[in-house]
UniProtKB/TrEMBL annotation:
It comes from the Bacteria. Coiled coil: none annotated. It comes from Sphaerisporangium dianthi. PANTHER family: BLL6575 PROTEIN. InterPro entries: ABATE, ABATE_dom_sf, Znf_CGNR. Pfam families: ABATE, zf-CGNR. Transmembrane segments: none annotated. This is CGNR zinc finger domain-containing protein. Residues 130-172 form the Zinc finger CGNR domain.
Length: 180
């Protein structure tokens, strides 16, 4: 099992914006995150726990964006202690036997274990610099840099295009101001 694929759960949660404003919104979020089978188990306690986890994970991404490697790792270590991982072998949806993290217990604990373990695996395998925060103003969405040359700076093509167009227009304004 590629545990780094679980890191995407952290990105989705950090970027969930208003999705956690209500139980219904959180259920939609979980379904969109591929956790629809679990969404029916969502409780108010889970919702609060997911909101807190979102704040904590955002802190990991913020530290990484500041190039504070020790800060990001310290935050991850704290989360690893708080959200213990219980692996289980599972088979569903016609798949072969594979590893899952925390089947059973509260839904928020399962989500946390997957997200935290995924980020931890990504950081230990590839480095803290693979966690990023979009550099396109005013966007502050988190992303995982899976590029071969560690060059990603934006959360999406849309933000990259918007930032490049803004930079181009700023250069043109600067040049036209000097040529007049």
């Amino acid at each position: 099992m590629d545990l780094t694929s679980y890191a995407e759960l952290a990105v989705l949660l950090v970027n969930s914006e208003d999705a956690l404003d209500s139980l219904e919104g959180a259920r939609r979020f979980l379904t969109e995150a591929g956790r629809g089978r679990q969404a029916s188990r969502l409780t108010r306690a889970d919702l609060e726990a997911l909101r807190e986890l979102r704040r904590e994970l955002a802190g990991v991404f913020a530290a990484a964006a500041r190039h504070d490697e020790n800060g990001a790792v310290d935050r991850l270590n704290t989360l690893l202690v708080r959200h213990s991982v219980r692996p289980q072998i599972s088979r569903h949806d016609g798949q072969r036997w594979h590893l899952h993290l925390t089947e059973g217990g509260r839904l928020s604990d399962e989500y946390a274990a997957g997200a935290v373990m995924g980020l931890t695996t990504l950081v230990t395998d590839l480095g803290v610099d693979r966690l990023g925060v979009c550099q396109a103003a005013p966007c502050r969405r988190a992303y995982l840099d899976t590029s071969s040359n560690r060059s990603r700076r934006y959360c999406s093509e849309r933000c990259a295009t918007r930032a490049n167009v803004a930079a181009y227009r700023a250069r043109r304004r600067h040049l036209s101001g000097h040529g007049a």
